[in-house]
Structure formats: structure tokens, C-alpha cells
Amino acid sequence: MVEKISLDSFDRKILDCLQDTADMPLAEIARRVGLSTTPCWRRINRLQDQGVIRARVALLDRRALNAGVTVFVAVRTAQHNAAWLGRFAKAIASFPEVMDCYRMSGEIDYLIRLVLPDIDAYDAFYKRLIAKVELSDVTSMFAMEEIKSTTRLPLTYLP
Fold it and tell me: Most C-beta atoms within 10 A of its C-beta, which of 38, 52, 60, 136?
């Protein structure tokens, strides 16, 4: 877990730039934030070392890669022990179609987000999942329309 750290206005502007385009040239980032390139480079390295910047990645178009269907899977289990959780976490990590998985409070125990090509691919995922772990209830919801999807984190809540 990353400790909360104090970021100044330069750090925030750097993070804003990198959330737009992770491969933005250093000179352009420095220009936008009002620093010369060396101090800007040092700040970026510090943000990486502190774990604020976890990775720089390319965001791919899932429809172009035949993964245009988004499915949310709500899972309930009757087993609430470390051994089951270990099996479940290992199973989830093994599925490339799993984009996110969260342990939840409330009516469901886990919420999984998948991207897949079609319903048949979801059915194959479901069969592989239940072969690996025991589940009490699985409810699947197919997204009809994507209203908003972003990787951009809000920087307005920084101390």
C-alpha cells in the first residue's frame, strides 16, 4: 500500500500530463508544468520511486481486439476462510479476461469485471471458474452501453 504523500502543484501538473499521455516527451511535460527538464525528470522519478506512478502503459481498444462485451459478475460464497480466498484469488488471477475483481461489503461478496468477445466466451469463463472454486451464487450482468470509462484518477482530492 502506498503511503499518502504530499504533492505540490508541480507534481499535480506532472501527474495530469502523464494521465493524458504517458509517453508525452519530457520537454513537453516540463513546458506545461513550468519547470526545466532536469527538475521535471527528477520529480517524475521520485513519483515512480514512491509508487505514485505505478506503470506507464498503452490503453488498447477492446473492440478492435475482439473483447467488446463487458460483463459484471456478482459472486456470493458460503465459505469465508483464508483457504477458499486463496483458491479464489489464484483462480481469478489466472483468467486474462478478468479486468477487475473486488471483495465487497453488502449483499455480494465479490464483483468481477470481464471483457470478452461474446456470450459463448462468458459461458466458457463461467465453467472454468466453477471448476476451480465453490460458489454459492453467481449473477451476471451484461453491459448494454458504456457511458463512461476512464483510467484517469481525480487529482482534486489530494491534500
Answer: 52
